[in-house]
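Subject: DNA repair protein RadA structure
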Amino acid sequence: MATRRPAPAPFKCSECGWTTSKWVGRCGECQQWGTVEEVSTAGVPRVSAVAPGSARAARPITQITTADTPRRSSGVGEFDRVLGGGIVPGAAILLSGEPGVGKSTLLLEVAAQAARGGRRVLYASAEESQAQVRLRAERTGALHDELYLASETDLATILGHIDEVKPELVIVDSVQTVSSSLSDGAAGQPSQVREVAATLIRVAKERHLPIVIVGHVTKDGQVAGPRILEHLVDVVCHFEGDRQTALRFIRALKNRFGPTDEVGCFEMTGDGIAEVPDPSGLFLGHGSTEPGTCVAIAMEGRRAMPVEVQALTVETAAPNPRRVVSGLDAARVAMVLAILEKRGQIATSKLDVYVSTVGGVRFTEPAADLAIAIAVAGAITGVSVPRTVAAVGELSLAGEIRPVTQAAQRRGEAARLGYTRVVDERSEKLADALDAVRVRSRRSAPTAPRRHEDAVPPF
């Protein structure tokens, strides 16, 4: 194995030969003044300049056209939304996610839709055999003659398949299970992952061939392998979801060709994965006006979605009341309870408090503060929120309602869904917002069951 020759020190003492990386007035060895001189760099190898050809010559950016790289739809609208409108030729896309979340199912659907669109697709699976992929394709309806399968773990063989099939889209599942003979070590080691990814990206750029690479994640949810993997690719997408629910989200963590604030929504079904272009009804209850519920408008990327926050309070004699939170930030819920008791004059210190979202969605942004406060206050006082009211706002420790980002889009989505009143920063104080809800709402009667069809007076 060749050793790298160390670079010569630029300064040397003319008396004793002591070298240093920076000039000093006195030699560090013989302590003589003025003997340290700059060493001649003659004979040191240097990189020679090479004149680029006419095809690679630098041009003014205004003269460069993108007509030769139009976006192509993957056939899956939610995936295109995250990519910024479609797949760019020559793009290297990295898709990560926890085991079993549905990465292979999603990419098999993308491959099938691209094949139905008239493009030849090569799906190289290094984790499953061809028969296993075929079984999943039969279940999800992803069979097509233009979809080619290969079960290979050797990078050179995968490149040979690309030369023979001549696809217009390549999917490699996954980069941690493919190895190259040019690098030492087993598949999945940093050197192997770096070599495999660099080779695939070079092929993508040279042939204008889009390649989608699946990447494993660590127990912390980060992409496994060297960090350079995320720097090399053009797009980094993360596929996430709770195994207890069928809902899945795909987010762009990096995108050289589009925004990174878009979110794609999918639902896992028995027949595979299905797009959810309008997830508004997934996170709402059945329209009940029982005390302890409040609807907030959450932002998932550029998409506004209503999320129902539910709260339940129970008296307890325990010295430390329970605080059980699901789908929300537990620290923010604890802060909201303290603000509610201090600024809203609603005691919560002797109650067990349970707060949750509907549908298993995670709603951790500060815009959920006001909805949490109204839901908990309603559960304690027995005041129900009308079904035409939504709440959006961040609470400060002083009890003030602060504005949130993209407020106009949230109000527009609320109006589209039939919410005629949005309680937000215009109420200024938490106490004023609670009073407005209390005045316009009806106090629930514990002895008479409430009917869902009862009309609720609007604000």
